[in-house]
Hints:
The complex is a heterodimer.
Chain A: H1 2-8, E1 28-32, E2 44-50, E3 53-60, H2 68-72, H3 77-85, H4 92-107, H5 113-141, H6 145-166, H7 186-210, H8 214-220, H9 228-233, H10 238-243, H11 250-253, H12 274-297, H13 316-321, H14 323-334, E4 341-350, E5 353-362, E6 369-373, H15 375-380, H16 383-387, H17 392-402, H18 406-410
Antiparallel strand pairs in A: 1-2, 2-3, 4-5, 5-6
Helix pairs in contact in A: 3-4, 4-5, 5-6, 5-12, 5-17, 6-7, 7-12, 12-17
Chain B: H1 6-17, E1 23-28, E2 31-35, H2 41-50, E3 58-66, E4 75-83, E5 88-96, E6 102-104, H3 113-124, E7 127-129
Parallel strand pairs in B: 2-5, 6-7
Antiparallel strand pairs in B: 1-2, 3-4, 4-5
Amino acid sequence: MSEVALVNNPNVGLDKTPKSGPYVNELTTLNLGPTHPATHGIFQNILTMDGETIVDAEQTVGYIHRAFEKIAERRPFYQITTLTDRMNYCSAPINNMGWHMTVEKLLGIEVPKRAQYIRVIMMELARLADHIICNSILAVDTGALTGFLYVYQWREFIYEIYEELCGARLTTNMGRFGGMERDLSPVAIEKIKKLLAELPAALKEFESMVVRNRIFMDRTQNVGAISAERALNYGFTGPNLRAAGVDYDVRSLNPYSSYEDFDFEIPVGTKGDTYDRFLVREEEMWQSLRIIQQAMDNLPEGPYHADAPHYYLPPKQEVYRNMEALIYHFKIVMGEIDAPVGEVYHSVEGGNGELGFYLVSDGGRTPYRLKFRRPGYIYYQAFPEMIKGSTLSDAIVTMSSMNVIAGELDT
Amino acid sequence: MENVSNQQIIDALQGQFGEEAIYGIAESHGILQITTEVEHIVPMLHFLYQHPVLKFQFLTDLAGIHFPEAKGQELGVIYHLHSLENNVRLWIKIYVPIEKPEVPTVTGLFATANWMEREAFDFYGIIFEGHPNLIRILNVEDMDYHPMRKEYPLEDATRHDKIDELFGR
Lengths: 411, 169
């Protein structure tokens, strides 16, 4: 891997290591982080450098650890949704929906088709926002700032659609157990249609600027590559695994929320390098647009939430008018409703991989144990192996293309 | 795909390790779970990894758990395996006493187990023997307890405004 990176980078061929003098064979220790403008988040890497080449890297994680798993053991199920927002905050709705589906599995709630389709739309919008952030910032890290600002408008527009549905932008707390808290409003439908009509042009323009750009290709091809075997052994999932050539996607292997109704492709790469990861994400955005289009075209009529009064928070107007709604509102908010005993695992395809929830319930009002399978935490441990032998600037680009989110890494 | 049944996995494991080594067999939404003894875990994961049909070659997750009431089996480790080729999942559970929470490491088989085991050590104090770098990962290094154990309540026990009795609990 490292040899390949060295051969293809024209600068590495020039041997810059001193042949004589006081600096021969001297290794340097370089602190990259914890707060470094190029790492987009709080990551510390203690690098051992031989000249400009990385010999070894040691990671420190946990700078923003907030004990979510411990807090979850004290909170009613309904209040844990807000914890999931704060893991991968670039695609918070996927986390919310994944958590809702886990609890619905435990409770045995059947979600109506319309709610499932709305969920699919929101999850794909979240994936779009996630990939827009990752790919455009990767372009920034290689020096292309213009494209970043251009596509970022659309990420902002996606947040406006979130606002229509749940009132929040970043930490969305979207949906409830049993469905959505509100239906797609006419404004939301109009905005999604506008997105579907206008984002492709922007995306195309962004791609035409970056994809065949000589500078971008030189900076990303054969940089931070990982083979399919190593990637699987390291527990890679999501676009990073698909870039290495393995077509594992939770959406198609274990469909949830009616994903089996939609027609979409799973892009895979061949080398698992930074350029492949970029291209896989780029193609996934096109596929997300396809899925949203299909969901909007075939949006079923019917209720947008299940009839599960014990777990579904009633509308606020009802709480003031209706006795039962008031009782359920009180019981849900105070966390007075016990969940059945059981053990469930549910996983969804998050923005950067398989996001899993392992929930053990002992029949109480809170989970007995809740384990989040955070994809970013699991694949970030391969980072030293991926950057060994490359230069510091390649390490920055590699990290950027892995889409490691600090909030998810540290829970 | 889907051609491997849960019964087939049980049969294969019982054929290799004997019937008494596999117990606590249950199913949760289609996912098979079994419990085994600590000494079987590494050979079992190797066996499942190399099995020509089952091919459990992906370690999805590894979770620690604490049951203070189960004397002699207080701490548990749950291995979430996934056979991507057959699309079958399997949970293997092992339990160890809290006085001697020693479990052999599986980092030799799965590189991804490295941080997962460090996390279980950090939060539950489970010692993974043979782990290349068993130090705390998310908590500060000078912490002298394992915070996810059930004896550490989340909220300050001296607070009087949140007594369960007042809420009818």
